[in-house]
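FAQ: What does the model actually see?

It sees only this:
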Amino acid sequence: MALRSGVSFLRFHALRSSSRLLSTHTRPEVQQNGRKIAEFPGAKAPYVTEMKILNETSYEPIPIYRVLDNNGDVLINTEEPNLDKEVLLNMYRSMVQLNQMDKILYESQRQGRISFYMTNYGEEGMHLGSAAALAPQDLVFAQYREVGVLLYRGMTMTELVNQCYGNHEDPGKGRHMPVHYGSKQLNIVTISSPLATQMPQAVGAAYAFKRTPNNDRCVICYFGEGAASEGDAFAAFNFAATLECPVILFCRNNGYAISTPSREQYRGDGIAARGPSMGIHTIRVDGTDTLAVYNAVTKAREMALKNKPVLIEAMSYRVGHHSTSDDSTAYRSLEEIQKWTTDENPVQKFRLYLERKGLWNEDAENALVKDSRNFIVRTMQEAEKKKKPHWKEMFEDVYYDKPFQLQKQMQEMEEHLKKYGEHYPLDNFQKE
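And it is asked to produce this:
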């Protein structure tokens, strides 16, 4: 009886399956432009009888959106954003302050005052254009070359310099290497060195926002075209699309991943081409055009808040060395660097735009450069005099209850310093 029941069960499911197959084969065909459309679970596309192998040249390249030409003139008046005078001036002042900070802290590293530094030359337009388009409550995941974003959001030169010098006023308590900034108050997640780790983290944060009632926040995640070669980047793209997260994935395609040019980093139509293929709304923008970046991020934010993730590829050029550990003249020509410094300079373009609007002039420029440089030099000198955090800080802030092993290590270190303290510069560190 049990056997007959089992056979009946199998027959029932066989008949059910065959009826499904019959219904599939007898339903009306879906047509598009006279061609039958296949409806596989994984893709819906037309059938063809001629095999065609596709590559990166099979499609038109994704166009690059711009507002300003190289002389700072608006190409189409309807594309000029309606920004308040003070917003425009704040954006430009942040650019100049950033340039001056880069010059002084780069020299500071060369003088042995700090261990490491990275400049932002050539990428200022992406920083300030994107920062001005965000809301204060939006969460920023930076890579390591977005200092203009931090300045515009309210981080002070003093905070930035203290971090580079690792003194006791550094919120990271000297544990990070220089340029690893962060600010909980300003919704800036602390920067870390490994490439692309911030990308899936940013998408996860955006998903948490999506699950929050009446959400008015989005996440912006900055990364370079080199980081886009990491597996974390593809995971982030896929999760952003499938989970429909309120996230802007902002790629700074500056031409080089340290010494590796973009032509050796990837094939195909840049990073933007990955967006539509993975189901993400995509914009490619001139990263040297501050106003174009502003418009792109403004639109992207509107879409992100509707749970439509957006990929922005901002095309630019890294004018400076990758870091103080790099000499870029070993892998690119001085003529190439000079071309981008003069012809496609985002600071120069924006300055010319402001001058044409009557908002800036030579006197204002000279005064700002002088004041910025003097202030940063004073800030650097003050940061240098501040004591380092107490040595016990190396054992803190990981565990709520300090485990026995760490307690033992700290005790051993304390005994060691009591015995050999004269061999260490303890006067440079804070007392308990």
